[in-house]
């Protein structure tokens, strides 16, 4: 097994890493760091939680150290990230790894005043971490010049594309100097990402740590079948029974997240919501409280949670199953970070069983079922041969399912209607 010393990193970096308590490079670090130090472009298939930030941050810092142009600080490395939270985390990692190095880095993202960002940029920086929108804004206003960028990192490329950043990325790529080193990280590798990678990586080396291999071994996963309207009662029971001190609950929608926080509150369980409708200040505050252990639960949507790196998350709840199977892997990856183990519970109602099929196909195994709970609902179990994907509700031709729904009589029918109005 390799160690950090054998990777060829400078003493100043090794000291910072050792201060952090890292003894062994993670697989993505062991593979990426030598390639990047060697000047290669890298296409990395890896998700957050694998140590990928250090996999690019350490080589970037090493290069800056090796060719120190201290008289004039110009942006030499640009890291693009899809969300503010992730950008802030990457920047925070740069602070940690560069603590013995004379370099400046800065993070910029939208949703907050640009003034302090512009002021820091004026002083000159070596490494810029940015979300695409704010980067383009500040470039167009003439506050940012990218003509000295030697190192370009596109992080979470799949999420970038999901969030509609492709045009922004293309604009930014056009402005960057031709001669530079590139790195693209993505948790998945659909054709759209492969095409994007081909468009700007040169003779890239592939480092593939795709989720199938890494998910899930250290995470104890279970699935609970339940009616939609019983999920709230079930989650209250589960949180109390498991004495959850640091857990993340995922809902599909922002409203769902807000509603659940209120319902948990009524049951005496403190939780904070984190999603795209919350102001940046509220998101940062919620995350900080959660990190410090002042609130035991975050209720999050996928986009807001992506990349959240909080140590010691013991439980992840999929209150709603995600409609993209990859999101399940990202979600449960919030626990079991950096070698620790974790517990992931997923709730599946009868409209979500197709999603469960998709998830089980992706991870290549059946998730163990917990059925000895008060709200177990047989009807939500996928039928033999069921196809992955969304179950269309209230369709006449889906007679089996509708009949089963009817079996529970008008009370459930009414409750379902009420729920669907509120959705
Ligand atoms: P990342 O995938 O970059 O978000 O990193 C996930 C977590 O792993 C962060 O909390 C890092 O501080 C931690 N980490 C990264 N590399 C190592 C390592 N080699 N040993 C132990 N922890 C690490």
**Alpha carbon gyration radius:** 23 Å
- Determine the number of helices (DSSP H or I, runs of at least 4 residues): 18
Distance between the termini: 51 Å
**What is the CATH topology assignment of the largest domain?**
Rossmann fold
CATH architectural grouping of the largest domain = 3-Layer(aba) Sandwich
Shape: globular
Uncertain runs are: 392-423
Strand arrangement in the largest pleated sheet: 3-4-2-5-6-1-7
Question: How does the helix and strand content classify structurally?
Answer: alpha/beta
The portion of residues forming beta strands comes to 5-15%
Number of domains: 2
Helical coverage, percent range: 40-55%
Bound molecules: adenosine monophosphate
* Main pleated sheet: 7 strands, parallel
Q: Which CATH class of the largest domain?
A: Alpha Beta
Instruction: List how many beta strands DSSP finds.
Output: 13
